[in-house]
Amino acid sequence: DCNLALLSAWRHERFDVVCLLVFRPEEADFKAHPLPLMEEQARCLGLPLHHIVLDKNCKSYKDEYVKGMTRLREDHGIEVIATGDMDLVGTMARNWIEECGEEAGIEAFLPLWKADRAECLETLRKERFTIIFSCVKSPWFDASWIGRQIDDASVNVMQDMANISIVVEGVAPSSETSIDKKYSYPVGTKPLDLGGERGEYHTMCLDGPLYLRRVEMDFKDPIELVEQRGQKEGERWWTISIL
Hints:
Layout: H1 2-11, E1 20-25, H2 35-45, E2 49-54, H3 61-76, E3 80-82, H4 96-104, E4 107-109, H5 117-126, E5 130-137, H6 152-162, E6 201-207, E7 223-225, E8 237-239
Helix pairs in contact: 3-4
């Protein structure tokens, strides 16, 4: 989603894209989106990556976001921040970047807001992005999805997940499962959001229309995460691992 937003901003006549941004808590370990991979993405795009570090002892993350955005405006002349956000998250009543940006004097550009998820996946393939799964969660996925590309075959399986009927207990399909097979999931499981907006999966981009060269990194076997914040009982999470 971030790369689609970047492409939209790059092609928009109003904007001159000058940098990439990552907002991160101090000492945060980004497992789904490893920082070394982000840095290499920025180098392959030929753009600087600015880190907005949020004080780990802060009383208000919103205040930290506003302060960081204000510094971007004052120190770098940033007027607009593009984000790939598609929908509201959790209990939020408004888009977070838009809300914080208002106080900081920065406009939010939301080209994917309320976008059709299937159409976004189709655009990624039409534009020849190389996207891999960097974090997946059960019951929709298993470890075999880590490192797999978003392509016609994987999207077909995901479409099946998005159309599930919640009836009986069962297991998630592996990445090799036939798209014709009908799946069953634990009672109460919601259908997959094709955009992963409920955190079902995360991805990283290795190549695309704006990349000067492909991101080349060596990956290890997937890592299974346990006892993570927000991890529900019985859920299994896996992430990418870099050598």
